[in-house]
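Bench log. Compound arrived from synthesis this morning; before running ITC I wanted a structural hypothesis for how nicotinamide-adenine-dinucleotide sits in the protein. Inputs:
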Amino acid sequence: MDVPFSADLTGRTAVVTGASTGIGHAIADLYLRNGATVVGLHRREVTEHAGKYIPVAADLGDPARVRSTAAEVLRDHRVDILVNNAGLNLRHPFEDFPVEDWDRVQQLNVRTVVELTQLFGRPMLGRGGGVIVNLASMLSFTGGFTASAYAASKGAVAQFTKSVANEWAAKGVRVNAIAPGFIDTEMNTALVADETRNRQILERIPAGRWGTAQDVAGAALFLASDAARFIHGTVLPVDGGYLGR
Ligand SMILES: NC(=O)c1ccc[n+]([C@@H]2O[C@H](COP(=O)([O-])OP(=O)(O)OC[C@H]3O[C@@H](n4cnc5c(N)ncnc54)[C@H](O)[C@@H]3O)[C@@H](O)[C@H]2O)c1
């Protein structure tokens, strides 16, 4: 599904984490089509984007790699937009939740987001301009089921977004989040394939369909664009009406 919205990102460089699949891939693709240079950070190096795309392989679950990768990118690029998209959901009933898995989810979904926001945000503050878009979730608002670590991490992303937005708004750096609803990506292949769960989910979405990665990318383009110049600290649901139901 194409995105019927455009914005001029010519001359801007965006870093998108987890840009090789799903929502991150769609965001990178849409930014490229709107004139941006995109530096994609992902675990395995792939070059499946057209345009001015620079792939950088990095395991963002490793704090040392997070710092060295950010330093490497900042040496070569002036980064105007950061999209903290890479994320992980490990599911277990809470009574059996291995704390190691809990830590892996917090590491990628929270600690890496915090550190990349600092590392890429500081030069933005120095120039007095920049945009950060974080990927929150419906589970920033609700608890979900067997996804306690993920819900806790996405709750943190939403609150973190508002806190940093408050501190940086007057300094010219806009920080916002997108909270996708049910989006048909790799993360949800099991839910889409489960006939009963799929029907239950569709019954709860007023728009009557799963979202696409492109639906989320449209919001990420809007938030990165100057059309969103007075938008700070928002957590924008892109959910086909799910949250309001
Ligand atoms: N799909 C949905 O319904 C949905 C809903 C709400 C929020 N989200 C959020 O949107 C974001 C993108 O999810 P998606 O649906 O495209 O799923 P996805 O699984 O396709 O994408 C996750 C991305 O994160 C990357 N990643 C995971 N661990 C990594 C690591 N250690 N180092 C580097 N990269 C790593 C993966 O390679 C992948 O590209 C995530 O933050 C997710 O929590 C998705």
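What the model suggests: Residues 99-127 form the longest helix (29 residues). The chain is about 40% helix and 15% strand.
ITC booked for Thursday regardless.
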